[in-house]
Amino acid sequence: MSPEQGYQLVYNFMSLAIASMGASFFFFISARGALKEGNRMAVTLSATVVLIAFYHYVRIFDSWVATAGGSLGEFNEAYRYVDWLLTVPLLVAELILVLRLDKKVESKLIQRNVVYAFLMIATGYIGEMDNQTSVVLDSSRTIWGAISTIFFVLILRDLFGGIDASFKKQSKEIQGIFKVLRVVLLATWGVYPIAYLLPTIAGNIGLSAGDGLVLKQVGYTIADILAKPGYGLLIWKIATLKNSGR
Ligand SMILES: *C/C=C(C)/C=C/C=C(C)/C=C/C1=C(C)CCCC1(C)C
Questions:
Q1: Do the Cβ atoms of 217 and 6 come closer than 8 Å?
Q2: What span, in angstroms and rounded, lies between the C-alpha atoms of 137 and 156?
Q3: Among 80, 153, 164, 245, which residue's CB has the most CB atoms within a 10 Å radius?
Q4: Pocket around ligand 1: residues whose beta carbon is below 6 Å from it?
Q5: Residue 80's domain is classified under what CATH number?
Q6: Which domain holds residue 54?
Q7: How far is the CA of 35 from the centre of ligand 1 (A)?
Q8: How far is residue 225's CA from residue 89's CA, in Å, rounded to a whole number?
Q9: pTM (2 decimals)?
């Protein structure tokens, strides 16, 4: 694609992200009011997550617009990482909280996974700052990306394994939605490491370096829309089931 098309494509997705974050904020705020006290926390966290993301997407969008006519290298990726550093631990916490597990199990799982999430993003950021492209094996981008992936796997291990024991106590309906939620989490969160790799492997899969950068931005942005407002809707669904005593 031409540089103009690439610029425009990312521009449109970022604009959609601002709209989705803003609209879902109002939805979560009004929906939480209809829930009983004990079921509200997870939905409150969803509202917090999309509000943080709304703010950052305004900054991200501004930064993108500033690259017009210049070089994509001027885009400030740090806004995304600050956003993830705040929102990813909240998203992990919300998934555990909505199940209303035994308090001791709950706080242990939350503490551990918040730390994993933080380390996953922080180490990924170090790699992201390395703009070296087309060298898969000896670029620090790949090495830090691999370290970050270890923390990603630790989170998945807890969500797919660690939770199971206390999970059996949940109703069939909630178990069903939770299973969907986990798969959604894996499918959407899995987009990030792939998008991250695109600039590095662009040359190997027949893309130009510019296409690699554009597709990375599109991938991150679509994944954010699914992983924040989209995921928040599923969390809200579980909270409403809990609310009606199921
Ligand atoms: C709302 C934002 C979310 C849910 C962001 C999630 C981000 C990730 C799961 C990022 C993971 C990464 C790796 C597993 C390796 C490469 C570096 C990252 C940070 C892109």
A1: no
A2: 25
A3: 80
A4: 84, 87-88, 91, 120-121, 124, 145, 148-149, 152, 189, 192-193, 196, 224, 227-228
A5: 1.20.1070.10
A6: 3-243
A7: 31
A8: 17
A9: 0.92
